[in-house]
Each structure stands twice: as structure tokens, then as C-alpha cells.
Design a protein that fits this description.
The structure is a homodimer of 430-residue chains. The first copy, chain A, folds into 3 domains: 151 residues, Rossmann fold (3-Layer(aba) Sandwich), CATH 3.40.50.720; 163 residues, Dihydrodipicolinate Reductase, domain 2 (2-Layer Sandwich), CATH 3.30.360; 80 residues, ACT domain (Alpha-Beta Plaits, 2-Layer Sandwich), CATH 3.30.70.260. With 430 residues, the first copy, chain A, is an alpha/beta fold. Chain A is built from 14 helices and 18 strands. The N and C termini of chain A lie far apart (52 Å). The radius of gyration of chain A is 24 Å and the shape is elongated. In chain A, the strands form 2 sheets. In chain A, strands 7, 8, 9, 10, 11, 12, 13, 14, 15, 16, 17 and 18 form a 12-stranded mixed beta sheet that branches. In chain A, helix 1 packs across helix 12. The relative contact order of chain A is 0.13. Strand 12 of chain A pairs antiparallel with strand 12 of chain B, so a sheet runs across the interface. Chains A, B: It is an enzyme of class 1 (oxidoreductase). Chains A, B: This is Homoserine dehydrogenase.
Amino acid sequence: MMRTRPLKVALLGCGVVGSEVARIMTTHAADLAARIGAPIELAGVAVRRPGKAREGIPPELVTTDATALVKRGDIDVVVEVIGGIEPARSLITTAFEHGASVVSANKALLAQDGAALHAAAGEHGRDLYYEAAVAGAIPLIRPLRESLAGDKVNRVLGIVNGTTNFILDKMDSTGAGYQEALDEATALGYAEADPTADVEGFDAAAKAAILAGIAFHTRVRLDDVYREGMTEVTAADFASARNMGCTIKLLAICERAADGGSVTARVHPAMIPLTHPLASVRGAYNAVFVESDAAGQLMFYGPGAGGAPTASAVLGDLVAVCRNRLNGATGPGESAYAALTVSPMGDVVTRYHISLDVADKPGVLAQVATVFAEHGVSIDTVRQKGKDGEASLVVVTHRASDASLTGTVEALRKLDTVRGVASIMRVEGE
Amino acid sequence: MMRTRPLKVALLGCGVVGSEVARIMTTHAADLAARIGAPIELAGVAVRRPGKAREGIPPELVTTDATALVKRGDIDVVVEVIGGIEPARSLITTAFEHGASVVSANKALLAQDGAALHAAAGEHGRDLYYEAAVAGAIPLIRPLRESLAGDKVNRVLGIVNGTTNFILDKMDSTGAGYQEALDEATALGYAEADPTADVEGFDAAAKAAILAGIAFHTRVRLDDVYREGMTEVTAADFASARNMGCTIKLLAICERAADGGSVTARVHPAMIPLTHPLASVRGAYNAVFVESDAAGQLMFYGPGAGGAPTASAVLGDLVAVCRNRLNGATGPGESAYAALTVSPMGDVVTRYHISLDVADKPGVLAQVATVFAEHGVSIDTVRQKGKDGEASLVVVTHRASDASLTGTVEALRKLDTVRGVASIMRVEGE
């Protein structure tokens, strides 16, 4: 049975995502009403530039006073697609205080202040949903939070930033350097004018914090996530990767330690085997592997950004939140009961690919191998290439802690025969 | 805040899946309680053979009287993992009548009687969840029903039967014939003693009916699904597929017609390009592509069967249903409001790969081409191979309706110069 009084939706932000949300709310109004059990009505749209023409949005709904809009008191759901920390945070908090539930696509805010926002939602008996904050249209938050609620997640490993994947894919397929590939990404609109948030891994780190928090039922703050960008990945690194049957991806990795008592979260470039399904994720697509006790390995793949895909995720949340309101219920809130320790990067255990420039004389390999052994880092393979008194040494290790590897590299730098450490890259996905 | 009175769960069936459900309920009791907000208690286990030892299940909980168990009146959730139509259907209906919600893994029953069961759940204000019925551990029902609730799904295309994928993968990688590959699947436990339900596509058809119903908000009955098994796929078909840069998979395909007013659902073997992500799904794994207006292309991948993966899906549903009970709410029920026409197979539009044995004399190709043209089927490529007065002709068409193709083939068979139609296979995934 259909309720006739519509649920009122306030839209904060009307850029690439917001305008798409408004468009779908209009064009799919009948479908949305049927799926929710009541019609929904766009009650107001808060924007920064009111003069701009916005197709399909009645001008009388447009306001620059977002605060007044969320304070109206008759708003059922606030959709926040402004991004950034402020004013988004204050607006969301105010929305809860005035009885609205919130759907947000704001990864930076959720990663930084998720706990406080969830608390505010809980205090007022309202929902906070944010599927769109991680990996665009790909259902990931809901599967982790609900489908796997009866399972134990051990690892989340994925490509969660389309811009960097586009750049790395370009470097891999054309042999281009980082700057050249970035320029192409910028020209095609895949990278922003200031690409820092993407290429330095800030965006992926925010998503890693959100995913780790949900996967491990533990509060994981942005500061807990180790972060390394991909601006120093070179064509030479890709050549080394290919020699190992690998490619290079910027990965977000959230892991439960083998003993189960602690977790880690990190973002960095890494080599992964070409046979790994993540290796074939092309262009700006995203893909996330989830490994759990009972389900085993699951993969979720799709467009990680863009107006329409992000709007799809926002609208899925909007339908759920509206249904909850009609039911007088709320969906799952923050689940941080496990409160596991978030360990520092030094505790992470993985494999490493290290390129050294060394003197081309007898005994160097023995010296280098001794340093690895002294730090408890076991060597899998070594490849030596000599030329004109200089040589390069490529070492691939077995699994070792990041702290041991760091100690090894510091000691290697002190060897007279080691001229330099050309690159260190982690090897994942095995 | 944790409620202390436990929610009571009755388990119907204690085979491969049921025993795993019981095990996880015990080993992960504290986690499940934290995630639900109340402890859950295994209140009874209905089995056929009570004498069998069941590790971890207190003997006093075991009963052969499933009906009495669901009628007890104090059961909050019934988990049905018996399979088949009866007694599962009666037990589920009785469970609703006595106030329980139901989690089921029963694809055959859901495909055949989903509408009636949903109606019974609705009438009594209870939940009916069945993530485990399709593609084992892979979250698929929930993403379609909830994550994409604000989007318009146009196509669901996937590998939803692990047994047949194992057999086809084996044929592809080793050149084995169907019987040899089936024997290996049976020996390894991937195929049952009577493999009919898998190899004839009945299992996949049931899943297609369920997926189509949810994706298109339309009731799709098992009888509405066109079904063709994979027992007649030959090593020669794989050779033909490779010539086209394709492999062969048994696909479940649910599509909205281009005009949007009707849908189709079908299961059959098909050639797909090696570059398509579904082509690289190996062994008994499942993977499903979902294409929608706003989200674009999404893929979900994982283990499609097995005790633990299926139990993961069952437990995810169990947590959701228990949470709903605590909230006094219910989750999304059947959504069939769109009530689109389910069109017959003749209306399906796709491409075809046809191998003909023909007389090796001038004019045959012209004759054959004329028949295609007369039926409005446009030819993409023709390959002709002659030998000793006999020749084979391989025709790949552009997109045409199944009815047109059937008419074409009937007319081809009547040509004197056509000795036989060696194989007809659809070409998908482009």
C-alpha cells in the first residue's frame, strides 16, 4: 500500500553527482515511489552559485542557505554531496538534530569523523548511509556491513582510486613515464587540476579507513592508515614488474593479523601477479577483493567514480533510508564493538622487491645477503646484472615485517659496496 | 545496548550447509550477538537421520519432527537448508503462520513458489531472505534488491552454476570431451551422482528466474525461463570458439528489451570473447555481471557453492532478519510492481555462430546467404572450408531475433546442398 504524503529530500550540492541525483529522482519518480512505498519529493537544493542554470531543477527549490534548508524541520532525508570537511560536517550534524536521516558520498569526512557522525545519528535515532563514499557505484559498504555480517573478514584488498589506476594502466600499456601518463589523465578529465589527493593516496587512504572500520568492526582513523603515493613509480619499476610476471597497482589493503588480535590498513603502490584478477582492472575502474573465513574470496568490480555511478549508489541508500523511515526503524549503525588494535606499518608482513646499485666486484652479493639474514629477512630470488664496474642487484624476499625490511634497507645503505637503493616495492596478491 | 533474552533459531536440515551454519553460530556466537544486538540460540535442528553423529550439536536439540519444531511458537527465525519443494514449502509456510521469519537457501522452491512464499511472509509481517539461493557466498540478491534500488537494471549476465563451469573450463583447458570432463567433476565432488539439475541447466534456470524477478521488479516464473543444457557442447565447439577468440560458458541471461516494456530470461551455453571478464572465471567459481542505467557495468565474483560459502550467505541473512525482529520491522519484501511482460525466447535478440555441412560446389554460399537474407538475419562473417566434395560453412551473424534465426535454420535444412546443421551457438558478451 502506497503512502501518499511524500518523503521530503534536501539535496546539499548540485555538481556532477548532485545534478545526477536530482535528475534520476525526477525521471525515475514512479519507480522510486513503488520501491520505497511512498513518493519522494525534492524539497530543496543548496548550492554555492545560485545563478547557474540547472536543467530539470525548479529555480524556487534552489537556495544558498544550506543551514536553513536542513533546519526546516520537515526534511526526512538530507543527501550530502558537497564533499570536504566543512560545511558538510556541520550540516550533517544539524540535519540529525532536526530529525533528518543522512545519505552522504563524503569519504574524507566519513574517514575523519565517522565515529562522531554515527554517534549523532544514533543519538537522534536516524540513519547515516554512505555507499557512494567508497568505490562509486560498486556495492561494497552494504555487502561488508550486511551480507558478510555473519562471517569473519580477514582481508580487503583493492583498487579504490580510478585516477591512479588510469595513470598506472597507461604507464603499463604504453611504457609512458608518470608525468606523461598524468598529463593524459588530466586532459581526459580523469585527473583534477590538482591531483594531489589522488596521486598521493589521500583519497584511497580515506576509503581504506572506512573499509577497515566496517570489515573489522573496529574504529580505524585516517591517521591509522599508512599512506604512500604513486608519483615515484617509474617506467623502470614496470620493467622490473614485468620481469617477475607482475604489474603495479596502487592498492588499499586492510588486513587482520595472523593472530586475529590486531589489524592494519595501508595504501601504497605494489607489484601484483598478472594472473591476479586485480591485475586486469583497466582504466578508471575499481575492484575490491574481500577474503573471509566462510565465504572465501569475493570480488566486486565496477566504475569507481563519475556522476551517474555515484548517483546510483546515493539513490540505493536513499531508497533504504526512506524505507527505514516509513518502518520507523533504522539500518545498521556503526559497529566498532571488536575494538581491535590498529597496528603500525612496521607490523605489516608482506614480500618485497628491492633494486640496489652496487659495485661490480666479488663478494658484494655475499655482503648483501648477510645483511638480509641478520635482519631475519629471507631471500626468495636474487638477480645480478653487471656493467662497467657498476652492477645492479634485484632481490625479492619471502614474507617479512615492514620493520625488518626497513632495518635491512638502512643497513644496506651503510655498506660501502652499495651505491644506492634504486627502489623498494611491496609484492602483494599471492 | 544488548538484549539478554536470546533470539531462537530453528535449523531445518543439517547437511553440508546446515552443519556449517550450526558450527559458525557456535564458534562466532559473541560476534553474532554484538552485530545483532542480542544473542542467538540454536533452539532445534530438524534432520532425517537422527542417529548420525553431529559434531558440536547437542543431541537433545536434534529432532526428526520438523513440523513440530516450526510450530513451537517460540522460534524467531527458521533457517531452511533442506532444499527441494516439499516438505520445505509447507515448513516455511507453517513457520510464517507461527510467527517466525525465514532464511532459505532453496533456489528451486523460491523460483517455483517465490510469490506465494513472499505473500505468506507479508501476511504475517515476517521476513523471507534467501541470499544463499543464488551464487552461494556472492552478495547478489542484496545488491540487486537494495544497492541498486535507485537504479534501472537492464541486464544480468552470469555464470551461476559451478558444476557446469568446472566441466566447461576443463573442456576448454584440456581439450577433453563432455563425458570425460563430467567424470572428472564427479570424481572430485563437483558434480553429483545424478548431474541432471546442473548439466541440463535446471539449477541455473531457477537462479535466473530469481535474479530476473528482483532485477526487473516483475514476477518471473521458472517456466518463463528458456533453458538449454550444456551436454551437447563438443570439443569441436571449443575449437570453433577459439577460432573466433572466444570460449564457451553456460550463461544465465536476464534482459530488459530495448523498448523497456518487456524482459526475457534464459539459460544456455554461449560463446563469449576471451577478453570478457566472464571468460576468465575458472573452475567452480561463479561471476555475475549487472548492467544498469546509472551504475554502468558491475561484476560480482566468488565461490558459487560449498558448505562454508553458502553458510556465510545464510548467516548474513540471519543477522539481518534478527536485527529486523529486534527493530520490530521487516526488510524489503517481494517487489513485483513493474509487472513487465516476460517475452518468449523467440523475442530474444543476439548473435549466432552456425556451423553447416554443405556440398562443396559452386553457388552453395550464395544459396545459404539468400536464406539468411530472406529471414532478415544479417551475416557478419562466413568461413568456408572444403574437402573431398564436402565442405563446412561457418556463419556468424549480426544481432537477430531467436525467431528469425530459427526460421533461417529450418529453411537451411530444406536446402539440397545443406547436408546438416552441425551446431548453433549464441554469441554473447559484446
